[in-house]
């Protein structure tokens, strides 16, 4: 076996070279390295084509590491150079973590919580509208489409709705406290029904649909025990729902009920209707979902009912989908749900300010061109070029100092970037010039939500010489 240490070639720009060397020296890595400055000022502007043209020597490296924002086809570049080329982190400050955890790529494909996503106004919607909503739910993580009924509201197309959903391969449930609705839904082919209690168990004898059993009233678990006994006599599967109550209307007691039901029935399937908290609390739902699914993960509650009725709960299903994957991974690896995936941190980042003000001042002093760079630190927003450094917490204070009054395009670009920087500074989010802020699961993104590093992105006007 060879004891030869790996040799890594780090490609960088003029401004980042000093800091890169300092970080590598402080790391005392278990590999040999060469730092090569490629002859451009800003490392983030590096591209695969530029590397192919400018790199004349690979210095005997076993691997080449380029900045995380380097664009282009690195597979083709690797073949051309005869050395594997890999992207590093976007920020130099993240380089130690990159090497400490580069092999840890959490597998978030697994989960054990099934999401029932309710279409609450189904009686007032057309079949086509119901199908459209169901497709969106499925695309965003729902496993079961829950067709909700409304009190004292006719649902003449109930049967047609289930036929259409089943034709497209959806797993379905019927959701009502009206026995007639439940019976119709079961006969129409619903896979589950929400909800039965001890007085409506007769419906389970009429259809093969798997019922969700609830206590009636919610505080009396003896009624749930009776319903369970009835289903056991029938020899049929069922799911238990002790009913989650809203804050100040029994929340704590209801969580205790879930714990008690799990104690009494350690192997039973259970469901939690998380919508009673996400919908009825004016707070960002991503944190509520994560906490409730954490309880589900601990108690092995493998079904939840999610709703997206209120405007503030419009991302409840994708939030629950990501939360269940992160929590499953954390539980399986006996770890806290930290540093698994950043998607649930929509408003804040764990390390929002990678640079301090002294480092920004040092960087600004090295700039020799008129292009503006923007950074944020704990102190505020900083914009600088060869003509000087300006800092503020309000972008309006900066505009008079930028000299772009007669350049509409440039002024517009800087306005957008400074607005992003201000939002990031106020919230404590990571800001990177020329990139949108990362809002995690709270915002719809294309593909997996990441920037395509193979695609070339035109530089903003601030990065072009006049």
From TrEMBL:
Full protein name: Pterin-binding domain-containing protein
Name of a matching Pfam family: DUF6513
Gene Ontology BP terms: pteridine-containing compound metabolic process
Entries under SUPFAM superfamilies matching the protein: Dihydropteroate synthetase-like
Domain Pterin-binding, first and last residues per copy: 96-328
Lineage start: Bacteria, Pseudomonadati, Pseudomonadota, Gammaproteobacteria, Methylococcales
Native source species: Methylomarinovum caldicuralii
């Amino acid at each position: 076996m060879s004891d030869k240490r790996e040799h890594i070639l780090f490609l960088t720009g003029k401004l980042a070279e000093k800091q890169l060397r300092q970080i590598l020296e402080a790391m005392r890595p278990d590999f040999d390295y060469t730092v090569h400055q490629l002859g451009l000022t800003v490392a983030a502007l590096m591209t695969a084509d530029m590397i192919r043209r400018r790199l004349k020597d690979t210095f005997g490296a076993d691997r080449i590491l380029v900045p995380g924002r380097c664009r282009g086809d690195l597979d083709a570049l690797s073949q051309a150079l005869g050395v594997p080329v890999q992207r590093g982190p976007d920020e130099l400050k993240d380089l130690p973590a990159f090497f400490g955890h580069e092999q840890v790529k959490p597998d978030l494909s697994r989960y054990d919580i099934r999401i029932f996503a309710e279409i609450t106004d189904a009686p007032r919607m057309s079949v086509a509208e119901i199908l459209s909503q169901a497709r969106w739910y499925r695309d965003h993580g729902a496993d079961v489409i829950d067709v909700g009924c409304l009190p004292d509201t006719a649902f003449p197309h109930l049967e047609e709705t289930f036929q259409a959903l089943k034709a497209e391969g959806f797993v379905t449930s019927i959701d009502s406290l009206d026995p007639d609705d439940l019976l119709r839904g079961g006969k129409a082919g619903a896979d589950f029904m929400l909800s039965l209690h001890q007085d409506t168990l007769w419906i389970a004898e009429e259809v093969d649909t798997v019922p969700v059993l609830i206590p009636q009233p919610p505080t009396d678990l003896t009624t749930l025990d009776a319903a369970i006994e009835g289903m056991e006599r029938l020899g049929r599967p069922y799911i238990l729902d002790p009913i989650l109550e809203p804050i100040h209307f029994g929340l704590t007691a209801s969580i205790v009920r879930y714990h008690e039901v799990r104690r009494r029935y350690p192997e039973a399937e259970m469901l939690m209707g998380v919508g009673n908290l996400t919908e009825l609390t004016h707070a960002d739902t991503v944190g509520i979902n994560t906490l409730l699914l954490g309880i589900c993960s601990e108690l092995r509650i493998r079904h939840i009912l999610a709703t997206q009725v209120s405007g503030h709960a419009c991302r409840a299903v994708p939030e629950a989908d990501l939360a269940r994957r992160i929590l499953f991974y954390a539980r399986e690896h006996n770890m806290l749900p930290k540093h698994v995936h950043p998607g649930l941190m929509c408003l804040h980042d764990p390390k929002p300010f990678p640079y301090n003000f002294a480092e920004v001042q040092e960087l600004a002093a090295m700039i020799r061109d008129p292009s503006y760079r923007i950074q944020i630190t704990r102190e505020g927003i900083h914009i600088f070029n060869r003509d000087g450094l300006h800092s503020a917490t309000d972008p309006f204070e900066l505009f008079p100092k930028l000299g772009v009054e007669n350049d509409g395009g440039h002024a517009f670009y800087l306005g957008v970037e400074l607005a992003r920087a201000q939002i990031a500074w106020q919230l404590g989010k990571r800001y990177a010039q020329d990139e949108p802020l990362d809002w995690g699961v709270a915002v719809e993104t294309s593909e997996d939500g990441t920037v395509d590093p193979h695609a070339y992105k035109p530089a903003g006007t601030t990065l072009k010489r006049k």
